[in-house]
Amino acid sequence: MKRALTIGLLLACGSLCGCVAAVVGGAAAGGYYLGKDDRSADRIATDAAITADVKARLIAEPGIRSLSINVDTYNGNVSLKGDVHTAGQRSTAASLANKVRGVKSVRNELTVK
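and the corresponding structure tokens:
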């Protein structure tokens, strides 16, 4: 549990620090371009924190290959893309994402392979 919490905090800090750079420098950070993105800086930071939390939960979940799952968040709407081994893992990933504070919806595009 401590490992998952540590990883989650590192992901969250890394994501939020990237957004701060975008706000301060106006440069691209974390895949978002301030000025070319219709979201506010606060919304971008919130979405980055949601993404980090979802990723941390996936990493902490036994049996899920979290590195094979891409998580994107836009205005609180989370998209999951990638590959999992079973339908149960696909369902679990979506359920974990839905539990994150601030998530409005989850689009589960995970493929069972």
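(Above: one complete record from the training split.) Strands lie at 69-74, 77-84, 105-112.
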